[in-house]
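Hello,

Our lab assistant flagged a job as stuck in the queue for most of the afternoon. It eventually completed. Since we weren't sure the result was trustworthy after the delay, we are filing this so someone can double-check. Below is the sequence as submitted and the structure that was eventually returned. Let us know if re-running is recommended.
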Amino acid sequence: MTGVESLLCIEELVERLQQIVLFRHVRGEHSSLWCLHFHRSQQLYMEYLMAHHDHLVALYTSTFHT
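-- returned structure --
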């Protein structure tokens, strides 16, 4: 996976989380199942960030601080 692909994956994950939160909020769904789903999504997102942290920092630095 290239750096650009990594960034796109992160953007997509953030967008999906935001859409899920908005959708559930609008529908008034706050069930325990929904909470579990959301927290699992957050956990996967954080695991991805941690696994690619050094690569993403290097990519950000080379992209925006040249």
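-- support follow-up --
The delay was a queue issue, not a problem with the job. The result is valid. Residues 8 and 50 are 16 Å apart (CA to CA). The first helix runs from residue 3 to 27.
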